[in-house]
Amino acid sequence: MKLSTILAAAGALVTAAALATPTAAAAPAAPSGVDATTLMSRLDAKAAAGVPDSVTGWHVDQASKQVVVSVLRADTDGLAWARSLGGPVRVEHTTAQPRRMWDIIGGQAIYFGSGRCSVGFNARNASGTRYVITAGHCTELGGTVNGVGGVIGPVAGTSFPGNDYGIIRVTNAAAVSTPLVDRYSSGSDVTVIGKEVVQVGQRICRSGSTTQWRCGTVQAFNQSVNYGGGDIVTGLTRTNACAQPGDSGGPYVSFPTGTTVQAQGVLSGGSGNCSTGGTTFFQPVNEILTAYGLTLITG
To answer: How far does Cα 202 stand from its chain's mean position?
Structure first.
């Protein structure tokens, strides 16, 4: 039976939205007879029509009943906007621009210049540098990699063929490295707490950006696979948890105990599909961690 590598598919980026909170010293503004609730409503309406980027946020201080407006580095446009309505406004000077935060979660999509794969696991080295672990035939595509919330960072290592693993260095401070694996519609995210190996005959699950959460059993260790064209990979684990193109690099984990799992490896390839069933192979995670001197981010 000819085996097919689980590979690329096109996809669109989705921006996650959340907000950081600025911190800085406050400076007083002139009081007025306008109450804070009314002024807050006016500021919201004014912001909807346009607000300087230097105005990073506003809220009502319940103790003083003043509206607090955060302005980046005492920008004159921001200060003018904050004080334009009068009333009980206090200006807070900030030094950092809020940014959107988003999570890197196992099984969600990652985008290379010419294809889509899936996040495997998050890890870090001894100095704290963060990495995403995925399949080597994905990182072989090279370049800067994007996730569901934006840029993750550049490919930092690839081993394929022979092995099938690679790493992406996380350079985006807004991208949060998590111990989570996405179960999509099958349930809430599960948390990786270790890397105890699931034995032959035991249940195993995987997650990927095409076929989402699928489970099966471990069938064999130390499997060699010939993907054709000279691409032979050794030392893989064989399972009957199905997968399809775009799932590559996604995580295999132990069958959940509540909401926790043990990391097993990342999808290399296989045959069949999730309509009729299939055979898949994963690269064990322990070998990847040893090769790059990494430690899993766990919960």
So the answer is: 28
Q: Where are the domains of the chain?
A: 26-94, 102-296
Largest CA distance in the chain: 81
pTM for this entry: 0.76
Q: pLDDT per residue over 202-234, tens digit each?
A: 999 999 999 999 999 999 999 999 999 999 999
What pairs with residue 190 in β-bridges? 181
Q: 26-94 architecture in CATH?
A: 2-Layer Sandwich (3.30)
Question: 102-296: what fold?
Answer: Thrombin, subunit H (2.40.10)
What DSSP letter does each residue of 123-145 carry, written as one string?
Answer: EE-TT--EEEEE-HHHHTT-SEE
* 244 DSSP assignment: -
Catalytic residues: 137, 164, 248
What are the residues facing 169 on neighbouring strands? 131
Cα 298 → chain centroid? 14
Task: Tell me the CB-side half-sphere exposure of residue 42, using CA atoms within 13 A.
Answer: 17
CB 237 within 8 A of CB 281: yes
> What is the CB-side half-sphere exposure of residue 183 using CA atoms within 13 A?
17
Residues in the chain, total: 299
Residues 83 and 28: their CA atoms lie apart, in Å, by: 11
Angle of CA points 258, 259, 261, to nearest 5°: 100
